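Posting this for the archive.
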Amino acid sequence: MRLNRTDRILQTLALTVLLAGVFLASDAALAQNPYSILTRWTIGGEGGWDYLTSDPAGHRLYVTHGPRVEVLDSDTGKVVGSITGLKGTHGVALDDEGKYGYISDGGANVVVVFDRTSLEKLASIPAGTNPDGIVFEPVTKTVWAFNGRSSNATVIDTAARKVVATIPLDGKPEFPVADGTGTVFANIETKNEIVRFDAAAKKITATWPVDNCDSPSGLALDREGYRLFAVCDGGKMAVLDATSGKTIANPAIGDGPDAARYDGTRKLAFSSNGGGTLTIIDAGKPGYPVLQTLATQRGARTMTLDTTTGRLFLATATFGDRPAPTADNPHPRPAIVPGSFTVLVVGQK
């Protein structure tokens, strides 16, 4: 049956009212039940840190911490073990069978394979210089390590545990994501770009400039809506169409971001900011408005998401005085107070 003009107008109005109600309900739910710091888990020890990785199925949280990876029970915060004897850890990638993990040990220029049950180290695979961001690609069963100082990507066959490709890049790479269907994306921090890779062909298929984005670092992907979320210096996030590479929004975030995450269940994007805030963005609305800015703690600029519970984990510590600048180190980092390394657990009560 063909609708007449009046019926079509009424139908459109009804749909508009329905969608508005959904958006208002979402906003109201967050207003009544905002995100907050639920608890803090003090791990202690010394040294810096980088990325965290959540394993929702295994109820584990992997936290890189200088020359070791701390492994926590993600429900209680109890340290269940650690992987030691490393040089300078950056990230942890997990396979899709629950068997193995892969650590980018930037200090040793290797990727370390470990058993996720015993936490035993099984292999050490040479990478480029300072492997940093790392991701497991499930279609090709490969691990991609992005090397910050040699500006290339090392592709590892996980069955053979050997390097099968080294892909040159035109700048310093940061964080990668995989879409689950054979495509890998990564930020190029020094070029304000995102590159797209065909995992099977092991080659770059697109290079996209990121508008209104300086030094993109953290990266997240909405697989259903096929949107990329890159966090940038200058208080901006860049939202890109992951098919065309077009930048479609630049919502405001906090200072000093280093990680982005996307919650597909709640349609929220997150930016963890070293200045001491967590920005929460409504990814289900046009314009990607900011729903909440949560005060966290100075230095809490890396995070991960438990996709089952919706909780986020952020790492930081207490800082002491900043050393005096020298010719060799004109911008020294402040000292970390020994024993203060902490994971913040963020969620809705």
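The chain has one helix and 28 strands. The longest strand covers residues 35-42.
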